[in-house]
Write a structure and sequence with these properties.
By secondary structure, the protein is an alpha+beta fold. The protein has helices at residues 13-21, 32-44, 80-92, 116-130, 153-156, 169-176, 195-202, and strands at 2-5, 49-54, 57-67, 99-107, 135-140, 180-193, 210-212, 221-224, 229-241. It has one domain: Gcn5-related N-acetyltransferase (GNAT) (Aminopeptidase), CATH 3.40.630.30. It is built from 7 helices and 9 strands; from the N terminus they run βααββαβαβααβαβββ. This is Transferase.
Length: 242
Amino acid sequence: MEVVTRADRPDLHDTAAAVFEDRWPEFIFHDEIPKTYMGRVKQYFGRFDVMVIDHGTVVAGGWGVPIPWSGDTGDLPSGYDDALVRAVRAWEAAIPATTLSFMAVAVGSAYDKRGLATVVLQELTRRAIEADLVHVVAPLRPTWKHRYPTVSMEEYATWARADGLSIDPWIRTHQRMGARVLGPAPSSMVIEGTVAEWESWTGMVFPVTREYVVPDALNLVWIDRERDRGVYVEQNLWVQHR
């Protein structure tokens, strides 16, 4: 297998995008912050956007952004969106970054359980060290949290197996690499749309104003029929790698 950046292999861009899109629910792609900042993220931080290729096929990928962070948990971004904004604004203001924030990792469904996510994380960490960044963090979107949308991320992060590791497979992946939990990312993504848009994104019907359990949503989604608005504020979980 070979690890390259997307910039190295622009011909594989569409294939890589398909690997990522297959792993997230439709509503995730309607967050407005990435629409504003992702073009500049790709322009500025291409060295932290990698793909794993096996016999010409993209089997996994991941990316991160360098951010200024003091090392104090109180100075962490509020989550995914805020990390994007902080990275771009710091770059444009010539504020030195101290930290790589992993943003997303995806593995093709045909290549699950082969340790490829760890390969991507290790490669991004290596690049962070090369860039003289002193911290590595991530606002995780835990794999199984959608099964417990009424449970706070703070509580969910404490649920552990008999061996002391998290019940959640994605949190465990990071723990096995030496990561420790820092705490919730309270407003990691904010996704808004009309009721019709939410019904289209989810395949559900929202007949009354209330909070709803939505497949693959980590928290409840608020639907306001009178204002024709649905709002989803996703909590993620900050972890820090050694």
